[in-house]
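### Sample
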Amino acid sequence: MASMDGKREVCSPFIPRRNALRKTSAEIVSEARQSLRVQSTRRPFTPRDGHRQLFGKSYVRADRDSRPPSAFSLHAQNFDAPDSRPGSGTRLSPLDHKPKFPVLCDAEDPFKSFPKTPSAPLEVKKGPPGMRARLLRTGSLTALTPTEGHKQSDNKYGCKEQSYPSPGQKQLPAKRPPGTDKTEGRGGPHKPGPRRTASESRITQPGVDSGDGLTECTAGRKAEQGNRDITMSPEEDAESSVWNNMIAPRLQQLESVAAGGSEGSVDRLCDLCDGLRGTLAEADMLGRRCKRRSGILRTLFRLIDLDSAQLNLHIAELCLALCVSGNNLLNICKLIFQISRRESNDILFQNSSVIDSFLGILSNEDVSTSGEALLYCVGTLKFLSGNCAILRLLLEKNCVGAAQKLIQRLCTAADTDFTIAGHILVQLTATLRNLADHPDSRPLFISFSILSELCVVLSNHREDPDICTNVSRIYSKLSSYSECRLALAQTPNCYQLFLELLNKHHQKQDLVVRLLFTLGNLAAESDEARWRLFQCEGCVDSLLQLYDTYQRRDDSPHTQPRKGPPRAPPGTVQQDEDVLVKLVRVLANMCIHPAVGPALASNATCIRLLMETLELRCVQESEELLVNVAATINNLSFYREDSSVLRRSQLPMAKLMLKLVLSSSMDAMLEATRVYGNVSQSKNVRDFIMQNKVHQFVVTLLDSKSTEMCIAACGVLTNLAQDPPNRASLSGEGAIAKLVDCLRDFGPGDWQLVSQVCQALWNMIGCGPEKLLDTRERESLLKILTTYLDEEAALKWIEDDDVRDFHRACWEFEFLPVAQKLMKTLQPPDQTA
C-alpha cells in the first residue's frame, strides 16, 4: 500500500476489485457498496380516475367520434323478445331472386311437404269445411310476434295461444319474398297488409283441436301431420309439467308484482327472479335447453323499465344463465355496464354470478361476432376491479387466466376487427393494471405469461398511445419485483420494443416515464439485462436524444442549439424532471456492466448532458435528479481508460459537485462525496478541494452516524493524504482523532468501514517523517488494533454460522492486510524486529 520511501498505492473505497481468478464474498459485498451501485427511484404515480367511463379524459385516442359511448339509454324495447336469431350480430340482406310462394318444409324430408299434384293429395285428415282452402291460400301462414298486437291465452298444454288481430287490423300482403318474412323470429316489425275478412283473420294450426289459434309450443310441427292427434315425448311431457306447475306461475307472479308497484316490490321481484333461476336449474332448463325460453325472456325484459339497479342485475344474471346472444347479449352487457358505473352499486356484484358469467364471456366469445358486447363486459370488470373486495374476488375466480385467453384472440383478430379489438384492449389492460396492485396477482401474471403476452399487444398496437400507456403502467408496477423482472427480461425483443416506443411516443410523458422506469428496473437486475439493452440497435443514441428533448434549458445565448426531434409539449417542470430522473437512472444502472461503462464514459454527449444538468438545476428544486446524476458520474468515474471523456473533465466536474456538498440534502452530500473520492485521484482535483476548504467539510462527515457517509469521507481523506502538505492540514482539522473514534465506534460490526479507516490512517501517519500522533493516541490505536486482530475475539459475538462466515471473509480479505501494515508502523522498531 505504502512504503517508507514515499511511494505508495492509494486505495479508493469506490473502486471495486475485479478478480477473474478468485472472487471472494468480501469482494462481492464491496462491489455492492462501492462506487458501482444500482440506483433506485420512486415508481411513477398513477392518479385514480374518479369518473367511471370507458375512455376517460386522459385517453388520447384518434377515433374519439367513433368510439363506443359510456352513457346511453336502455329500455325493454331495445331487446329482441324471441332471442331466436343467430348471435352473429349482423342482419342479413334479402336474397336477390324472384319471389316464390312459401311452402312448408319438413325437417326430416324437405321434399315431403312440397305441394303435390291432384293425383297425390296432401296427407291430412279432413277437417272442417274450408280448412284445406285456408291452408293452401298464399300468405295465410304468418308468424306474428307477441308484440304485433295478438292476444294470448293458455291452452290445455300450458302453451300460450296467439290470437291474431281483428279484421280491422292490417296484415301482411298476400305475396311475399320466398320463405317467411325476413324479420320473422327476430321481433322486428312486419309490413302492413290489406284488410282481411273475419274468416281469414284467424287460422288454426293443424293438429290442434282447441279452436282457432296458433300455439307457441306447436308452431313448428310438420304440415303433413294435419289435424291428427298430437303425441308428446316423455321429455316434452315433463317439460310441459314443469312449465305449467312451476315456471308459468312464477312468471305470472313477476308480472303481477311489477304491475302492483307496491313498496318493497323490488326486493320481492329480486326474490322471484332468484326463485325462477333455481327452478330452471333444478329442471335442467338453463342455457338454451328450455324450448319456451322466449316467453321467459319477454317477461324479464319488460321488468327492465322499472329502472332498479338491484332488480336489473338479477334480470341480467338470469338472462346470462339463459345464454342470450346477439343483440340481447350486447344489451345485457350494456345494462350491467350501466349498473357498474355507480360505485355505490359495487356491493351488488359481490354475491352475484354476473362476474362468473362475464369471465366465461371473456374466455369464449368471438371478437368478430360479439366485439361490442366484449367491450362493455371488460369495461364493467375494469370498474369493479377498482374495488378492493371485488379485486380479490376476480383473482380467486381466475380473471387473469380469462384475460390471457381474450388477449390471444384479440391479437389474432381479423383486420376488420382491429378497431374494436383496440377498444377492448384499452379496457382489458386497464383491468390488468388494477389487478397488478394486489400481491396475489404476481404469481398469476407469471404463470399465465401475461408479461410476454402484453409485449405482443404492444407490438401489434404500437400506434395506440392509450394501450401502450396502460401496458407501461402494468410493467412499471410489476417490474419492481424480482420474479416479475426475471419473467419480463426473458421475453424476446422486449428491450428493442421499449426503445421503439420511446422514439415513437417521445412526447407522451406518462408513457415515456413508465417505460424508462421499467428499463431502469431491468438494468438493476443483472449484467445480462444491461448488456442486452445496450446491444439494442440505437440504444444509447435513443436515450441521449430523449435526454436532450426533456432537458430544460434557459434561453441564454450560452446554451447550445438543440438537435434531434422537436421538444416535448410544454408540461410542468416536475413532469419533465421525472422523465430525466428515470432516464439518468437507466444510464447509471447500465454503466455497471464492464463493457457498457467505458462506452458511456467515452461518450461526449452523455458527459455533456450530465454536466449540463448539474449546471442548470439547483438542489432545492431538483434534489432527486441531481442525486441520480451524481451517482451516474460516480459510476462512470470508475472507468479510467484513456478514451474516457469524464477522465479529462474531472476538474470541471469537481467544481459542479461543490454545490451538492454544500447543500442541506444529506443524499446530495453523500453522492458528491463519493464522486470526490474517485476524482480526487487527480492532483488538480486534490488541489481544488484543499483550496476551497472542502476537506474541512469532509472531516466533519466523520461525525456522522451513517456508515455510508463515513466510508465515503474516508475515501476522500485517503486520497488527500497522498500529498505531504495535506497531511498536516488534515491533522490540524482533527481528522486523525475522528478516524480513531470511527474505528472504536463501528468496530467489528462493519469490517469494510474499519478497513477503510485503517487505510486512511496508514496514508496519514505511515508515509512520512511527520509525527502526527502523540503517545496517548498511539497507545489507544494500538490497543484497538490488537483487539481486532484477534480473530476469535473479533468474531465471537456472532452466533449465526452463515453470518459468521460472511464476517470472517470480510475480516480476512478486507481488514487484516491493511491493519497489519498499520500495526507494524505504530510499533517501536525493537518490537517490529
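Strands lie at 151-154, 160-163, 214-215. This sample (Armadillo repeat containing 2) is used throughout the tutorial notebook.
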